[in-house]
UniProtKB/TrEMBL annotation:
Gene3D superfamilies in UniProt: GntR ligand-binding domain-like, Winged helix-like DNA-binding domain superfamily/Winged helix DNA-binding domain
Pfam families: FCD, GntR
Keywords for the protein's UniProt record, in alphabetical order: DNA-binding, Transcription, Transcription regulation
Stored InterPro entries: GntR_C, TF_FadR/GntR_C, Tscrpt_reg_HTH_GntR, WH-like_DNA-bd_sf, WH_DNA-bd_sf
Higher taxonomy: Bacteria, Bacillati, Actinomycetota, Actinomycetes, Mycobacteriales
Superkingdom of origin: Bacteria
Residues annotated as domain HTH gntR-type: 18-88
Name of this protein: FadR family transcriptional regulator
Molecular function GO labels: DNA binding; DNA-binding transcription factor activity
């Protein structure tokens, strides 16, 4: 048995008590995350919050800075300013995940490999669960994609929206978050590439992608799970091979 006197004094130190600002931020955070405070809703005035929490102005403002850093509120200064609620979103989580991947020297090929492993089974799941309303939404998304064909940047955004819709329609929130984070990182890399290559062969790539999207919707509508999954795997593999040509930098650089 380990004797008490052999345990380092450091390990016996009492846990740090949270600062008052952290406790205030935690209360407000809980209200936002639980939906008690809606997107865009104004927090009570500074005077009201100072009275409610019985704290100093610097402490309250420190709590606001914590929530701002988490993208849970925005604060406008001045006579007509104040704090307004921002609900949690995938982009914030994806941004931090991107920092971690970039720190580890992750390549874009690595991200595409993860996507190819994750997304195809999702398409099979959607083919098994699809409803008529789901198919209508997918067809409408394809129409938007086609209408954006004359603009590479709009085309990549509607392409992204279509991928997100496929996952959304499964109804699985965990998959939406995971794929949304991967999609965000790929979108950032793709948008940077498209901006530097406007009016070059990416238009051909978008055209091929649109054909694959139409094909997968047909299979989803027909309830052909395996077929839809295989078409999507082939589509993602071809997209990876197209975007990772030798003349394209593949090491993640999301800080630029």
């Amino acid at each position: 048995m380990v004797q008490l006197d052999t345990v380092s004094a450091e390990r016996l130190q009492p846990p740090r008590l949270p600062k008052t600002a952290e406790l205030i931020a935690d209360q407000l955070r809980r209200q936002i995350v639980r939906g008690d405070l809606a997107e865009g809703a104004a927090l009570p005035s500074e005077a009201e919050l100072l009275e409610r929490f019985n704290v100093s102005r610097p402490t309250l403002r420190e709590a606001f800075r914590v929530l701002e850093s988490e993208s849970l509120i925005t604060v406008r200064r001045g006579a007509h300013g104040g704090a307004r609620v921002q609900v949690p979103n995938i982009d914030v989580a994806a941004r931090y995940a991107g920092f971690v991947l970039e720190f580890r020297g992750t390549t874009l090929a690595d991200v595409y490999e993860a996507r190819i492993l994750i997304e195809p089974p999702i398409i099979g799941l959607l083919a098994a669960r699809r409803t008529d309303a789901d198919v209508e939404r997918l067809r409408a998304a394809l129409d938007e994609h086609e209408a954006a064909a004359d603009s590479p940047l709009r085309a990549i955004r509607t392409h992204t929206a279509f991928h997100a819709l496929l996952v959304e329609l499964t109804g699985n929130q965990t998959l939406r978050v995971l794929t949304g984070m991967v999609q965000h990182i790929i979108d950032r890399a793709n948008i940077d590439w498209v901006e530097s290559k406007v009016a070059t062969p990416e238009e051909t790539g978008m055209s091929l992608g649109l054909k694959a999207h139409h094909r997968v919707v047909d299979l989803i509508e027909a309830g052909v799970e395996t077929g839809a999954e295989e078409v999507w795997r082939k589509h993602l593999t071809e997209a990876r091979d197209y975007l990772l040509r030798p003349d394209v930098t593949t090491v993640l650089d999301l800080m630029g």
